[in-house]
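Summary for the funding panel

The consortium committed to producing paired sequence-structure records for every protein in the target list. Below we show the first two records in order, beginning with the earlier of the two.
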Amino acid sequence: MRKFLGLAAAGLLITGPATWAQSAENDGADAQPNDTDSSASTDAASDAAAAAEAAMAADARAIQAHVNAYRTGNIDTFLDSFTPDAIVTVNGITAQGRAELRKLYALNFRPGAPKLEIMDSGMSGPNVYLTTRYRLANGGELCCGYSEYTVRDGKIAQIAGSM
């Protein structure tokens, strides 16, 4: 039986580390008012933390848009959430570019395709990850899938996963 590949059709909960900006601010708590080197260092750390948080939030929004596109049941909408040169590798199967992705995900957009539920999500280094399970029409389930997503310019550039 060919396995169904895909993304979660349930809610997406992107989690990440506690606010990095707060920890960066706390690191500079001992700085003296006239200590410009320490103040500049704290400002740079806060700026870097804010940039990292903004990038993480942008990646989470891209993954959420990708999941929402999957939920439409329209493969064209779904494929638009990928970069034109996107690479997906799952269980040793690799597809690159939207034409190959269309073939890879075709079963996910047929009537009766299993529904996916997110069991866990978060950040793994610079990537967003999802852990999913597949719910069959008869109530049975196939467990479990793990995928890491790389985002580029607001689109999915790479997925590496296993089932």
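The next record, for a separate protein in the list, is shown here:
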Amino acid sequence: MNSKSIGKILTAVDYSKKSLEAAEFALLIAKNMNSSLIIVNVLQTEPWLYGKHAYEWGSEDELDKAYHKEKERIEQVLNNIKNNAEKISVTTRTEILMNAQTNSIASTIVEFAENEKVDLIVVGTRGASGVKRMLLGSVASGVVTYAHCPVLVVK
């Protein structure tokens, strides 16, 4: 692959230090390669939002409020990265991908990257729920295994 073929980069973030380091690395690559950057977060939702019944422990309104609060929280993270990109003249777009808990986060990232025709995916080794003894988190491992394009894992 030559450097001209990296037109679009995707980085997936949560609140973890490793994902934010991966986003910084993706910004540097995008700047150096004159690439655009898509910054995504996968928000896990209850399966009932996809056609099943709500759980007994939460009303629809209570769960909607919880998701709205979580979306606002992650939007702050995404906007911070986007602001850093603007400072170095990198074109960015942010997306929050809603994903039922019954679906894999990695498959959601890979499917989105394929649909967007991304040339490179940059992820951290472990996310917010990472287990320290694992070399590679399950999301990063899944993305590496199934992505249609090169994946850079930031350790």
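Regarding this second record: Residues 130-135 have pLDDT under 50 and may be disordered. Residues 60-87 form the longest helix (28 residues).
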